[in-house]
Each structure stands twice: as C-alpha cells, then as structure tokens.
Amino acid sequence: MRWKVGGRERSKTYKTKALGESFLTDLRQAARRGEAFDLETVFPSR
C-alpha cells in the first residue's frame, strides 16, 4: 500500500491484498474522523 501525508510518501507491504486493503481502510477512516497524522511516522496520532 502507498499513501501520502504532508507531501511525504510512504509504503508498506502486506502478505495478502485483503490485509493491505484493511490497513488502507483504517487510514481512510482516521482521515474522515479528522484524526491528526504524525508527520514523522506518517500514521494517525493515537
């Protein structure tokens, strides 16, 4: 999966397509909820 936060591109590999899509869904849901993303780790701050 590939995604961008603050202009910084990140990627992560998963063994199955379903696992990757699940991760991407989690990122999208965090964005919709308005959660802040940490610009260092490029993941939602929790």
Description:
The protein has 46 residues and is α+β, with helices and mostly antiparallel strands. The protein has one domain. The protein contains 1 helix and 4 strands, in the order ββαββ. The protein has one helix at 17-32, and strands at 2-5, 8-11, 37-38, 43-44. The chain has a two-stranded antiparallel sheet. A two-stranded antiparallel sheet has the order 3-4. Strand 1 (2-5) and strand 2 (8-11) form a beta hairpin. The mean pLDDT is 84.
Briefly note the structural class of the backbone. alpha+beta
Give the proportion of residues in helices: 25-40%
Rounded to the nearest angstrom, the radius of gyration is: 11 Å
Low-confidence stretches: none
Q: Which strand order do you get reading across the main beta sheet?
A: 1-2
The protein's oligomeric status is single chain
